[in-house]
Design goal:
The protein has 309 residues and is α+β, with helices and mostly antiparallel strands. It has helices spanning 21-30, 76-83, 108-119, 167-170, 183-186, 217-228, 266-275, and strands at residues 9-15, 36-41, 46-52, 58-64, 92-99, 129-135, 140-146, 159-163, 202-211, 234-236, 239-243, 257-261, 278-286, 293-296, 301-306.
């Protein structure tokens, strides 16, 4: 039986305080990203905006619509909000998703759990659950979520999003040519204009870096290997690296990396102690006209890497 890839980087989640999707959108625009409206998720607890990239991956800028105190204690809505896996997360990069299966007969959870049984990594994913949201134009999107089991660390392990409705409804990318090395021709003028062209020159995600305590590196690496389906392509005393894929498979030159590492300085030690393991930084490819640097959202670290022709 055909086994789908479990290493396609779908999107990265950035959380801001309740009711701040518009503010976060402007903050990302100020960083040089083209931000497009998203919508409200099913149940009304969260809303989002999107930053779509030429590779088919995207950033999800998300916030809860209201603080927890908005809902009466012990009410159904309060219980739903408190049980959301992101309800107690600090603002910033909080999670990342790989692309799940669109075939309802294929279970990503079963595939990963069977790998884990064979290799003894101990990772476990729960069966798929339904999800969705309503776009601003009223179109209803549906998908299934495959997430690590409750006892696993959400955010250091990815969840999976598998589309029931067409993926292009969820993340429509306009104006991209399949010319991975010719950056001057990658985005062509169209009407309506490209939504994946960014003032900063961002082309795609270069890496997602996961920060964990040094003592858990080897165990976490084994679990991520079960999830990705491939061993790391790099290993050092400070961490492990995997090569990922993107939804637009033609852009081979812009493949992202998943980096698992321990803190390397006091700032990272403090970050990990305050927030726990999870996504620490996201790096983006920019074209040859770009500049290598680091910057930040108000809550998360960004690295800019130049992709030479």
């Amino acid at each position: 039986m055909f086994e789908p890839s479990t290493k396609i980087l779908d999107h990265i989640v950035h959380l801001t305080p309740p009711g701040t999707v518009e503010l976060a959108s402007q903050q990302f625009r100020d960083l040089g990203f083209n931000v497009i409206p998203g919508g409200t998720h099913t149940g009304g607890l969260t809303a989002n905006a999107l930053v779509v990239l030429a590779t088919g991956s995207y950033l999800e800028l998300i916030s809860f619509t209201h603080p927890a105190s908005h809902y009466p204690p012990s009410s159904p809505d309060r219980r739903k909000r408190d049980s959301n896996p992101w309800s107690h997360k600090h603002p910033g990069w909080i999670d990342y998703a790989f692309l799940g299966a669109s075939d309802p007969d294929v279970s990503i959870a079963h595939i990963i759990n069977e790998r884990a049984r064979l290799d003894g990594s101990g990772v476990k994913y729960d069966p798929e659950v339904d999800g969705g949201r309503v776009r601003e134009d009223g179109k209803t999107l549906k998908w299934v979520i495959t997430a690590p089991s409750e006892e696993q660390r959400r955010g250091s392990l990815p969840f999976f999003c598998g589309d029931v409705t067409p993926r292009e409804w969820r993340v429509s990318i306009r104006g991209v040519e399949d010319a991975p090395l010719d950056y001057s021709r990658r985005r062509v003028p169209i009407d309506p204009p490209s939504n994946s062209k960014h003032p900063s020159g961002v082309l795609g995600i270069a890496h997602v870096r996961i920060l964990v305590v040094a003592e858990s590196l080897d165990a976490q690496s084994a679990q991520l290997t079960s999830v990705v389906g491939d061993p790391p392509v790099g290993h050092s005393l400070s961490g492990y690296t995997w090569s990922l894929e993107t939804p637009h498979s033609g852009l081979e030159a812009l493949k992202p990396r998943l980096i698992l590492s321990a803190p390397v300085d006091e700032e990272e030690e403090t970050y990990l102690a305050e927030r726990g393991p999870g996504v620490y930084e996201v790096a983006f490819w920019v074209g040859p006209e770009g500049k290598e640097r680091t910057s930040a959202t108000p809550y998360g670290k960004i690295v800019w890497r130049v992709k030479a022709t």
